[in-house]
Amino acid sequence: MDELAQLKAQVADLKQQLKQTANRYQTLNAELEKRVSERTAALRESEAMFRALFEGTACGVALHDEEGNFIAVNESAVKMINGKTKDQMIGKTPGDFAPPVQPDGEDSQQKSREHIAIALEKGSHRLEWNGRSLDGTEYFTDVILTPINLDDRRLVQAVFMDITDRKRAEEALRRSEEKFRRLVEGLKEEYYFFALNRKGVLTYLSPSIENVLGYSADKLPSHYARYLTDNPINEKLVEVERDILSGKSLPPYEIEVYNANGEPRRLEVLEFPVVDNNGQVISVEGIARDVTTYRQAEEHIRQLNAELEQRVKDRTEQLRSLSAHLQSVREAERTRIAREIHDELGQSLTALKMDLSWLDRRLSKNQKDLSDKITSMTNLVDHTIRTVQRISSELRPGLLDDLGLTAAIEWQAEVFQDRTGIGCNTVFHPEELVLNRHRSTEIFRIFQETLTNIARHAEASQVDVSLTKDDGQVTLTIQDNGKGISETQLADRNAFGLIGMRERAISLGGTISFVGQSGVGTTVEVNIPLDGETKQ
To answer: Which end of the chain is flanked by fewer CB atoms within 10 Å, N or C?
Structure first.
């Protein structure tokens, strides 16, 4: 009985332990299910993140098996080949989406397999790949291959970025540089290209330097200052260098250097700064041109021009001296003719008039016809005497020699007013102005020519004349209220009256100006210095 009770107790104890174990297993199972659920959720989240990363990147992403076949690709990879579905790439190799050979000449299929093998053996590496899309368009990619292990499988992850634009830009730059190199190396006679660092040391010289200065590119002194001459033109280099290194673009300038034979040569230089991405000047590039021959030719032309100008000046002075001499001779001849007309012809006419008067007194009253004839002859003689006086005065006014310039101008103004009906006012300061014979004659002739021009062209009704002496010079001003002289008339080469007036003023060391204003009138101003003036 005791054994049965003991056995029951053991059974009860076993049941209790079994229940506890069942509870423990149930708890562990619940915990395991929870962990599995959490791990599954985490795995799904990780997979979603990986898929988002895999699909969302702008770069092409693919997985390759050990033979190089695509086993997974993202949408960016499909777009890169202008495809529509991923199935168009799965199971194929990069060589199927490439030209037959790569730019280096290798077979695309072979090269694709080689790079997959390299990645599996040596680890991640990078390469450039020339691809071809389904529509035949070629493109370039920058590819990074990385080996990965997945479910005991050795795979290769490929990440590739389209670099077609960069490659085309690089190719365009290469071609541009090649053209530039051919241009630089093709220069023969007058030009060469160069580059300097910030210390002025030459870092590049085009081969044409030998044609310009006689140096080969590797024999020229490394710093430009070592072959400069002592010509002052080189002093500006310090300022130019400072401005260039500060980033300024400057116009061409000139320097003088010695060539390989020690001869000075003039160079025209155009430089420009080269800056980095931060805008800092890192070097200077430029082009130099030998302008020695041009400058020598310019200097020769300048000398010839100077010589020609001097000859023209000398000849002009000779012509002016000749003109002044002719004017003087003509005035002397006028004076002689006027005196002879006045003295000889005038005296003869006066004597003839006296003889006619004597005859008239001796005629009888019944000789009326003879008396009338004598009266007619006497009137003719009077008219001839007046004509002789007028001609004599026009040739050489006696007032100019006897009473001076102011009296002659006043008389000429009155004659002008009587003949033309144009009012003519005169003002003199001082009232009596005593000048030598030559100055008086030239100023008077300028005055006469001005009145002649006014009468012919001005259409004026009033003329104002002033003659003043001040600050060692005589000033004659003639102002009319006519239509005003024009610039065209002043520039007319056939305006000999104006030219003669200028030459008379210049012969006296003076100046003459003509100022015309349409509808207002013209002002002529003559300024004659009195330095060293002596009576003649």
So the answer is: N
334: closest CA among 436, 444, 417, 413?
444
Given pLDDT bands bounded at 50, 70 and 90, which one contains residue 98? very high
Specify which residues 160 forms β-bridges with. Answer: 60, 143
pLDDT of residue 535: 40
Element (H, E) at 361: helix 346-362
If you count them, how many residues does the chain have? 536
User: What letter represents residue 436's amino acid?
Assistant: N
- Is pLDDT at 178 greater than 80 in this prediction? no
Asked whether the bond before 207 is cis by omega within 30 degrees of 0, the reply is no
Starting at the edge strand found earlier in the chain, the sheet holding 138-150 runs 70-73, 60-64, 153-162, 138-150, 125-132
- pTM of full prediction above 0.70: no
C-alpha to C-alpha distance for 416 and 410, rounded to whole angstroms: 10
CA distance 211 to 208: 5
Nearest to 40 by CA among 48, 52, 51, 28: 48
Q: Are 426 and 409 in contact (CB under 8 A)?
A: yes
Q: What tens digit of pLDDT does each residue of 463-516 get? A: 999 999 988 889 999 999 999 998 888 888 888 788 888 888 888 889 999 999
What is the per-residue pLDDT across 435-453, written as a single tens digit (0 to 9) for each?
A: 888 888 888 889 988 998 9
Tokens for 490, please give them: 């002043």
C-beta separation of 292 from 189 below 8 A: no
Element (H, E) at 25: helix 2-56
Q: Whole-angstrom Cα distance, residue 500 to residue 324? A: 10
* Whether 89 contacts 77, CB under 8 Å: yes
